[in-house]
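Dear Dr. V.,

Thank you for agreeing to look over these. As mentioned in my earlier message, I'm a first-year student in the group and I'm still getting used to reading structure tokens, so any feedback on how I've presented them would be very welcome. I ran two proteins. I've put each sequence directly above its structure. The first is here:
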Amino acid sequence: MATTFEIAHEEVAARALAIIEKYHTDLAKAGVTIDYLFAHSSAGQPLKHGGYPALAIARIVNLKDRVKGLADAEISIDAERFDEMTDEEKDGLLDHELTHLCPIKDADGEYKRDSHHRPRLSMQHHDYQFGWFREVALRHGRNSPECVQARILYEKDGQAFFPLLTGTLELEGS
């Protein structure tokens, strides 16, 4: 079965608004509008990004569709997986997708607008993007790109991503 979409229930927009007010005030100040969609598929993962299953995908809506009344951006969410998440995981996922959306400013710090006076946006890329093959890492060890990337991640941000390995995480009850 093909992927189908529906407008996400109001909880998603309310959660996203709270995250925008706390972490993404530029989106609010620029007046960025966002549509939230749920994706469904009886055949497995309904969303893919770069050929890989994705929990959610953010995109900037093109000018032609904005003129027809769509929002400035759209976040599609795997509905089944979202429903299985804790509230904290839902917030983390929405925060991740909202981080991709960046209002563009001019040299004076003013928000740039398109020909219909809607905020112009750019996509923020991930700080890290990995494409790893386990078998290559096993064959070449520390000389493999996989291990080089892992070492860079660990050395630069190990405390953020591997707190148990760096001894910085305080466990409950300790």
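The second protein is here, in the same arrangement:
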Amino acid sequence: ILFLIFTHFVLTPEPTPADVFALRSMIAVRSSALSRLLETLTLLGTTPLILLQSTVAALLLKSRDDLHSAIQIMAASTGAVLLTELTKRIFARPRPTVIPALMHAVGYAYPSGHSFATTATYITLALILCRYATSPLQRVLVFAAGFFLTGVVAFSRVYLGVHYVSDAISGILLGV
């Protein structure tokens, strides 16, 4: 529901002023070292890596006789990958041209598939891992790691100039 409400307000024929401002702000913070780091970290949201991580997690969970969790992580990651393609085709928002992109990206921009897949996968994995946590601190740390990874990937997509900030936020909302 939050995704649909957000989409109603931000998905316009022209980018929102907030989207343009966020992208132009990236120019001020770009550096070669940060660009290399974020080009690497954005890979955490690629389809092959998301599906590989989910498969490894599912196999480990199955080896612990936790078939329910194994199915849950695979459903979250594959569902996100499939729904990304569907939603991008429905909304058909072009990629930003406000600033030069630091990497090549194909297809439509809305919602960010990287943000969607990392949120769905890492937050689901955090929920699963919390079942095995023995203390509240472990649960907090697991969720902090999941949210941190999700945030880094979402930020990287805007920093690299291949998504508007609203694309990244919508991906996170859909992933949740």
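From my reading of the second output: The helical segments are 2-10, 17-29, 32-41, 47-63, 67-91, 113-132, 136-159, 165-175. The mean pLDDT is 94. Does that match how you would interpret it?

Kind regards,
E.
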